[in-house]
Design a protein that fits this description.
Elements (H helix, E strand, L loop, with lengths): L10 H14 L3 E3 L6 H15 L6 E3 L2 H4 L13 E6 L2 H10 L4 E2 L8 E3 L12
Helix pairs in contact: 1-4
Length: 126
């Protein structure tokens, strides 16, 4: 039986570490990039133009996705979806290495989700 690792870190802190780890793996990894997915990909295009090359490995979430975080606790209240291009197996490996769960169907055409930790689920029923 696998037990969850307890941590005093917020999801935001863990996800920041995930993005740092992905940059060490050679990814262009950005949090809170632009207002939406279309604008974020446009910003990636601008970064590529400035560098004069196409980035093979890119991962980000945008401001609309950032609404998944509770503003007070900095923990996820809904799945955080990552837009990506490149080596998906490394993204999933790094997320899991940092103790979070992934919801993803393995398709190149869907975003990778970081799941809310069970201890952070809030019952919002009245």
């Amino acid at each position: 039986m696998t037990t969850a690792v307890k941590t005093d870190k917020t999801d935001k802190e863990i996800i920041t570490q995930i993005f740092k780890d992905l940059r060490k793996e050679g990814f262009v990894a950005r949090q809170n990039l632009a207002c939406c997915q279309s604008c974020a990909w446009s910003e990636v295009d601008v970064m590529e133009d400035k560098k004069g090359k196409t980035f093979e490995n890119v991962v980000f979430y945008h401001r609309q996705d950032a609404e998944s975080f509770d503003t007070k606790t900095k923990n996820l209240q809904s799945t955080l979806f990552l837009a990506w291009r490149g080596d998906s197996s490394t993204i999933v490996k790094v997320i899991r290495k940092n103790g979070l769960k992934v919801d993803w169907d393995g398709s190149d055409f869907t975003r990778i989700g970081i799941v809310v930790r069970p201890e952070n689920i809030v019952d919002s029923r009245w």
